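User: I'm new to structure prediction. If I give you an amino acid sequence, what do you actually give back? Let's try with this one:
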Amino acid sequence: MVADSEKKKKTTKRTKMVKKPKKDKEKVKAKGYRDIGVDIIVPKKRCDDRNCPFHGTLSVRGQMIEGEVISDKMQRTVIVEKNYRRYIPKYERYELRTGRYMAHNPPCINARTGAKVKIMECRPLSKTKAFVVIEQKTK
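Assistant: Good question. You get back a string of structure tokens that encode the predicted 3D arrangement of the chain. For your 139 residues, that looks like this:
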């Protein structure tokens, strides 16, 4: 009986865990930006925004949408509009539809009204905002 209790005591001891530095932070310091896994032009300007996919910790996933910025009146947020066509089988014709997306606008990109941008899905940043601007095509 004594031997069994000693074995239990030995197995329940835990060793100290050594924290390793995160690789992403090391890469950001070396290159100046983080690789987000998408083939796009990285912004030259640097920012301190934590919700920036290049200089912060925000990861992107899912849909990638191209559209035009129609409003930039909010702080670090833009409204991107995407026009698309939907087929109506009964009439054998197409109708034009519009999709509007609220997207985070990092200071390093700083897209303005009228710019063609690429946005990508990310975790929800607010009630209506789950996209982030990753590239500005034209001004």
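You can read the tokens as a compact description of the fold. Here is one thing that stands out. The chain has one domain: 20-138.
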